[in-house]
Amino acid sequence: MAPPDPPRVEVTPDGYTPGPEAGQWRVAWRMLNLEEEPLRLLDAHSPHHGFRSELIPLADVVPPGSSARIELAIAHQQRAPSIIDNAFLIVRLARGDEEWRVFYRLAITFGPNGEPENSGVVTGVHPVGFSQTA
Question: What are residue 54's DSSP bridge partners?
Fold first, then answer.
């Protein structure tokens, strides 16, 4: 039996705001549901050592054709002309009873005050547990 096709989503940057202390930023993305059924967003984080957030629970149900905003508290100590080109936004979501992880690879440049401008591409949507061994 072939595995199910992964959920189709689109991720785009959706701005940033300074956090309460130097090196802290609230960074947001929009995730668009391209499926014909709702998706449930379960959690998200950015694990890169230079652009890190904690794992946060999410409770959004995203109807077909709609999007949800994902905002993370990011810690970093970067300044222009620093670039991070291999960070990820990782979102765990559910379609029906299937759980998936979306990997959105980030290319981040930093302004003179540390403001994080980012762009990226979805590099994979994998079933949760796909790399576990029996």
Answer: none
DSSP state for residue 2 in the 8-state scheme: P
- Return d(Cα 49, Cα 44) in angstroms, integer: 16
Q: How far apart are CA 14 and CA 101, in angstroms?
A: 20
Residue 126, pLDDT score = 92
- Which stretches in the chain have pLDDT values below 70? 130-134
Position 89 scores a pLDDT of 97
Q: Is the pTM of this model over 0.85?
A: yes
pLDDT of residue 133: 45
Q: Domain 9-127 carries which CATH code?
A: 2.60.40.10
Nearest-angstrom CA–CA distance, 42 and 57:
6
- Nearest CA to 118 out of 90, 75, 88, 93 is that of 88
Give the H or E element holding residue 62. strand 61-62
Buried b / exposed e along 57-79 (16+ C-beta atoms within 10 A): ebebebeeeebbebbbebbbebe
Tokens coding 118: 């980012």
DSSP annotation of 21 reads S
